[in-house]
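User: Hey, quick favor. My workstation is busy. Could you predict this chain's structure for me?
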Amino acid sequence: MPAAFANAALIAVDWGTTRCRAMLLDMDGAILAEADSADGIGALGGVGHEEAFNTLVAAWPKVPAIMAGMVGSRQGWHEAAYVSVPTSPDRLADGLLKFQTADHRPMAIVPGLVLRSEARDGDVIRGEETQLVGLMEEEPDFNGIAILPGTHSKWAAIENGTITTFQTFLTGEVFELLARKSLLRHSVAEDSDDIAGSADFALAVRRSVLEGLPFLAAIFSVRVRQLLDGVSGDDNLAYLSGLVIGGEIAAARQVGLLDSDRPIRIIGSRTLARSYHAAFGVAGHAAETRDGGALVRRGLVRIARANGLI
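Assistant: No problem, here it is.
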């Protein structure tokens, strides 16, 4: 076993639907080793979580582990109950689901977040809460909006060390359905190299956010652009992406999550972050991006420390 492992204090796990990523950390949260596998919660089908975890970390010391993501869902290892917003990192730490493996390793799963609302039918977060805590740890004085783009894009308001509210938009899933399953699939390319830098992407964001073109009307224009103007599949793919991301931004404005005074942080993969950063620029909002993986680690360490795991 490597000498550096003598300083190991915690295993931090980001366990999603498709991948499981583990980090061996020291007391300060520095990474000593990393491992990942394709044993996502979706692939396991509700069984074999402990075996998958043990296989992934077999070469590491038997230190406590803290996990976030779909591992705490009904299809996960154990279901971790949601914590209601508004909430704080300390309340999330208090809500950790703790248990032991068969070989007596201490384990914990971070709870998700739930929003109850009479104005809409409620909302939930599972996994992204840990990145929000990581952002709050990195920027203790941050008061603004954090956007976590993806299949189900999340917007969360943070004020005075508290997650006050959030909203989910099915942006990524709708884009995939439109581009791969709908009539529009005949008008868009399979992929494109630089969607964020495309003039067609910017045009679509302007249509959605600044000109107020209704979303359900706007998306048919993807087909019309091909038929009447011979627009290429690459350009139309960028245009469709701009419409759905622009539609998300326009909807966030409508529900009061976006105004000119609130700082914006985009947390996510490099490609998606670039697209959202470009869209906010077109819409007239300054935004900064943060690495989602780094914030997961920061958040898990913060929650583990608050609960006494390290």
